[in-house]
Amino acid sequence: MACCVLQITGLIFGGVGMVGTLAATAMPQWRVSAYMDGNIVVFETIWEGLWMDCISQLGIRLQCKFYDSLLALPPPLEAFRALMVIGVGLSILSFLTAIAGVKYTQGGKEGPQAVSIFILAAGVAFLLSGTLVLIPVSWTGASIIRDFYDPQVPAPLKRELGAALYVGWGSSALLLAAGAMYC
Q1: Is residue 142 assigned to a domain?
Q2: Are 181 and 125 in contact (CB under 8 A)?
Q3: Considering its fold, how many domains does the chain have in total?
Q4: Is 43 inside a domain boundary?
């Protein structure tokens, strides 16, 4: 009985982590403009994401523009895109594998060997997808913090941590927890 509860909990954590990974990949709020020097009059907010930049003017008007060329992107952004897309795909695959493993466990018709292979494969895939999500999110967060405290970076170019980074960290933690439960 405890095994089934652990599998169901892992499935819930993996499902929420999968949705969070997809949301973090699509969200444009990876880097958000920082307001410094006591300026309380703010007319626009700049968001920078993996796929587009957005400008919100007074919270009323939102304009987003997808990046024009894949070749014009900086290499870290290209790598982060690739890691997040692979992480999304792997989290979906691991979630489906976990469903199959839980289904075979509930059915009980297959031998314990077949069930353990599905469960172990799902656990390893969840761990790998959580790691793939954690790398670009943490790297981006570290670069934002480094640039924020760098006196060489002008104040208008400084950014703060966006909501997508927090969603990415949370979904990565859930994917890693699901992988640990299945392993």
Answers
A1: yes
A2: no
A3: 1
A4: no
Mean pLDDT by 10 residues, the chain (183 residues): 78 94 93 70 79 83 83 86 94 92 67 71 94 95 90 83 94 95 87
Query: Is 20 within the bounds of a domain?
Result: yes
Nearest alpha-carbon partner for 115 in 106, 126, 104, 107: 104
Question: Tokens 């024009």 appear where?
Answer: 68
132 contacts 82 by C-beta, under 8 angstroms: no
- Tokens of residue 127, six digits: 């761990």
Q: 């290499």: which residue's tokens?
A: 75
DSSP 93-161: HHHHHHHHHHHHHHH--S-HHHHHHHHHHHHHHHHHHHHHHHHHHHHHHHHHHHHHT-TTS-GGG-EEE
**Rg over CA atoms, the chain:** 20
Contact predicate 24/13, CB 8 Å: no
Dist. CA 175–CA 10, nearest whole Å: 9
State residue 160 phi and psi, 5-degree precision: -115, 170
CA distances for 27 relative to 6, 94, 97, 167, angstroms: 31, 22, 26, 9
| 44 lies in some domain | no
Domain that holds residue 92: 1-29+74-182
To the nearest 10°, report the CA torsion of 54, 57, 62, 65: -30
Tell me, what CATH number does 106's domain have? 1.20.140.150
